[in-house]
Amino acid sequence: MSMKSKLSLLGMTAIALVMATGAHAQEGEPIRIGAAYPLTGPAATNGLLAALGHEMIIDKINAEGGILGRPVESFTRDSKGTPADATSAARDLITLDNADFIVGGFTSGEGLAISEVALQEEVIYIAASPKTIQMSEDNFHKYMFRTAANTNTEGGSAAIIMNDLGVKRICTMLLDYSYGHDLLKGFKAHLEELDPEAEIVTEVWPALNVSDYTPYITEVMNSDCTGVFSGIWGGLFVPFAKQAASFGFFDQKEHFVAAGEPGSQEIIEELGDDMPTGIWANSYEVWYYPDTEAHNKYLEELRQRLDNPYPPSWPITGYMAVQALAAGIEAAGNTDTDAVIDALEGLTYESAIGPQTIRESDHQANRGQYWGQIAESDEYNFKILDPVRYIEADDIMD
Amino acid sequence: MMYATIQFLNGLSYGLSLFLVAAGLSIIFGVLRVLNFAHGTFYMLGGYIAYEAVSHIGLSDGGFWIAVALSGLVLAVLAAIIERLMLRKLYGRDEVYQLLFTFALVLLFSDVIRGLWGTQVLSISFPPELSGAQDLGLAYYPRYRLFLCLVGIVVAIGVWFVFQRTRWGRIIRAATQDREILGALGINVPLVYLVVFSAGAALAGIGGALAAPALALKPGMDTEIIVECFIVVIIGGLGSLWGAFIGAILIGQLRSIGLYFVPEWEIVLVYLLMIAVLAFRPWGLLGKREGE
Prior knowledge:
- The complex is a heterodimer.
- Chain A has helices spanning 3-27, 44-63, 83-95, 108-121, 151-164, 178-194, 214-221, 237-246, 249-252, 265-271, 293-306, 315-332, 337-344; strands spanning 31-37, 72-78, 101-104, 124-127, 144-146, 169-173, 199-204, 227-230, 255-258, 280-283, 348-351, 354-357, 369-375, 384-391.
- Chain A is of the alpha/beta class.
- Chain A is globular, with a radius of gyration of 23 Å.
- Chain B is an all-alpha fold.
- In chain B, 73% of the residues lie in helices and 2% in strands.
- Chain B contains 11 helices and 2 strands; from the N terminus they run ααααββααααααα.
- The relative contact order of chain B is 0.20.
- The mean pLDDT of chain B is 92.
- The A-B interface holds A 40-45, 204-205, 207, 209, 211-212, 214-216, 218-219, 222, 234-236, 238-239, 242-243, 246-248, 266, 270-274 and B 3, 6-7, 10-11, 13-14, 114, 118-123, 125-126, 131, 133, 140, 142, 144-145, 213-216, 218-221, 224, 255-256, 259-260, 263-264, 266-267.
């Protein structure tokens, strides 16, 4: 390269830099958002997808001109699925990455841990998927907001399904840790309101780490209940369903209502023919419902990213958390923590699955629940949810 | 009655599949004096190898059985390589080195498995020959789980037969007593060690492959099974084949029958038994007191 062309290149670079910083100064400093999701460990299957949803929405916001005209800079750290690692991830996001806001979390334990850091550091935290009601009750504080449903909503919506099925004698199969016990609380409270005669006759409590559910399956089959409410979540449902089916469980128990998102595309595809037809199961998101513009646009982005026509359900959790935060900052007009808290309280924001409102009292979004009955499909080589029901959260958040 | 029968069979089938893994752990300790932390990892690898094989050759027309045999074979070869190249250098050194080495294998292979197969839960369907339920007169019971019971019993008798009635068995038993004298008698002791380690690993691999349809493949299954195996051999007695057999069946039954009698406490029962054994008979039910 000659001296002259070197100089002209330098000159052009300089002009470009000046123009860039000029534009920058107009837009202001980037808004820094930190995300903590499990990227390694057993929870990474879900965490990586939630982080993908997070990345998608950040890119979309930046492509559309940022928030308040300012670009968004995102930092993601690995919460590894444990409260201890979630704590250090959240702390590093705030102190090392200088994040103005944090989002994320996957398990209930992670949610409580990140929320605690948010309180100490006085930074807004939007819980993307942790559902434990403890975050909204005993451990509630003003910096915590939640775009995920809580265990009351999930348990309550299961009670609505169970009641609509007309079940009077119920068995429960919930996992013996906070999520399972919180779910039962929500389920019981709303079932009593719906049908005082309905009764839980048998409760079994497998530990979170058991791999053989057969003793519990046998126990429930020996009970005279006609409907079963389970909270065996995510991938844990796979061995459970196979073991139960080999005992003829789903033929004997007429009604089965499965919380913990076993109705997600991921689990349905993993189980294939072993996914029990006729049971009711929930999911964070269903790619064939609802058929709205916002949802279809979201799905289009997701399909492109993953090169998969039947996208998984988990990315929506990371996506919606940032949608709520961005709407809150826009409404506040600046990034001041107290101003954004004020703006988020009572805010209705447009999400990929329609408008959501965050109530003032406990910062809980009215995130409803997608439930559906597992049915054979003529169109696909996996089963589908048919019909799909969206159960509104407004009456079942407490 | 029917209910109790089913719970008994649940405990038996779970216990006997646990035995396949615990037996190898116990035998390896008996002969090599190495507490193999990586035994659960061998079990896990066996399951994932069977999954991979089945996804290529399918389940029907004997595909599942080929996959199971392949798991055993791969694990036998892998274990032989590990023993020959690495573990062998640690015999006679402080036990801590052996523990650290086998623990390193746990960490290494759990990352390898994550890299190759990801972290989602995977499963194999039941082989078509053994799907469905069998009428036992008193109750219907899944055929595959009955088959697991049978395998456990056949392996127990088979291993016992090899130990007690064959030349190889005599050599292995002699190796547990005094390896120096055995070597002086012209026996190739390093080869004995290699074969025992390799066979134990193959048993764990087959155990993992057979467990895959009944349970599931997931990260963390290696540490879950190794903890249960340690409990089995603590109860039964480290180094004892029948100790492992009885320990495994006791654990299976405590979980299922325990749920019947004292629901909410069934998990604790196993640990209570372990504590009782450690307190009153620390060498295990069928183990030998050190120095005896």
